[in-house]
Amino acid sequence: MDDTNQVEHEQISTALEVEQIEVNLFRSKSLWLPLRARGVFGGQVISQALVSATNCVDPAFALHSSHCYFLTSASPSTPIVYYVERLRQGRSYCTRSVKAVQNGEIIFIMLCSFQKPEPWQPSHQWPMPKVPAPEDCELDETKYARVIRDKQVHPKLAALYQALVVERTRSPIAIKPAAEHIVTSAGVITYMYWMKARSIPKYEPSFHKCILAYYSDHYFIPTAARIMGLRRGGKGKDALSMTSTLDHTIWFYNNDFNTGDWMLHVMQSPRSGSGRGIVHGRLYTRDGTLVAVTSQEGVVRADVRGPEPNAKL
Questions:
Q1: Pick the catalytic residue: 44, 48, 294, 296?
Q2: How far is it, in rounded angstroms, from Cα 106 to Cα 254?
Q3: Which of 44, 223, 245, 268 does the annotation list as catalytic?
Q4: What is the pLDDT of residues 65-120, one digit of tens each?
Q5: Which candidate, 245, 251, 309, places its Cα nearest to that of 283?
Q6: Contact at 8 Å (CB) between 175 and 219?
Q7: Residue 7: how many CB atoms within 10 A of its CB?
Q8: What pLDDT was estimated at residue 9?
Q9: Are 244 and 69 in contact (CB under 8 A)?
């Protein structure tokens, strides 16, 4: 396998780029396998599918929701082909489906809906939580590098953090933890991260939605594992053996935001169990505008065995 597939692209435009090979048919140009991941980064598959669908829609319609299912992991060594089906074309809404195929197998499906904007309609939103400004938070790679300098860190952990420093430094997405494991009086645990695309030019609003979809997948389902105290390298019921996305949904409520500026992703997990966890999120601009609501369910397994077949429970 080409080692270049192991490093996330420095330009978000490269990560999202697809080649149109027929009227409703598109093909990925590059794919990224994150460190310790089972397959291609899910956010990249979502965003490339959205780019493909958006290319099959009248620009008068704006993406307002996408609903995805990941059927199996994708390999970074073979291009993904995206087939867009034009399900419905109405006066106010239109619907597209996208099937992602690799090696003749459907690995991912998406249903997405587009709307002619109605900005004159009334609106409301939940307020953005109070967190430190992005300028007062440190980058992930800075945090990892600081941990490496601690002489008490185990060499294996230091090597892992060094790999994370390289990956995060080369990522087209900058991430700064704003607040982690904040517990409210009602017992709700929240994780919050500032995220933005690095050094991007001026894009059309539709492409900013695709970028948001890309980075909305960062740290999302792992939030459920962290809330349960599961971690890689732990022991028994505290050991995380697997996380993998099952489905991912985004609802957009703003058509004019800039993913090149910091946005806050607020994440909470209301329930986990039976080897699964669900996480809900809200994405705010730095001025407090709630532009998108997110939801994701995934496999979240501890390193514990179930009962043997025919065993008495």
A1: 296
A2: 31
A3: 245
A4: 999 999 999 999 999 999 999 999 999 999 999 999 999 999 999 999 999 999 99
A5: 251
A6: yes
A7: 15
A8: 60
A9: no
SS3 category, 235: coil
- A 10 A CB-CB count for 312 gives 5
Taking CA atoms, 185 is separated from 128, 176, 265, 271, in Å, by 18, 25, 21, 18
For residues 63 and 129, give the distance between their C-alpha atoms in angstroms, rounded to a whole number. 26
Tokens 């953090």 correspond to what residue?
161
Q: What is the pLDDT of residue 231?
A: 86
Helices (H), the chain: 12-16, 42-54, 140-148, 155-170, 205-215, 222-227
Mean pLDDT of the chain: 92
**Which pLDDT belongs to residue 3?**
36
Q: Is 268 a catalytic residue?
A: no
pLDDT at 280: 98
Q: Is the pTM of this model over 0.90?
A: yes
Cα separation of 210 and 227, whole Å?
Answer: 28
Question: CB neighbours of 185 closer than 8 A, spacing ≥ 6?
Answer: none
Domains in the chain, please, with CATH?
A: 3-118+171-302 (2.40.160.210)
In sequence order, what DSSP letters do the residues of 35-102 get, joined into one string? Answer: TT-SSS-HHHHHHHHHHHHHTTS-TTSEEEEEEEEE-SPPPTTSPPEEEEEEEEE-SSEEEEEEEEEE
Catalytic-role residue among 44, 190, 217, 285:
217
Q: What is the pLDDT of residues 191-234, one digit of tens each?
A: 999 999 998 888 899 999 999 999 999 999 999 999 999 987 77
Q: How far apart are the first and last CA of the chain?
A: 45
Q: Are 224 and 277 in contact (CB under 8 A)?
A: yes
Q: Is residue 217 annotated as part of the catalytic site, yes or no?
A: yes
* Alpha carbon separation from 66 to 162, 167, 180, 193 (Å, rounded): 35, 28, 27, 22
Whether 296 sits among the annotated catalytic residues: the reply is: yes
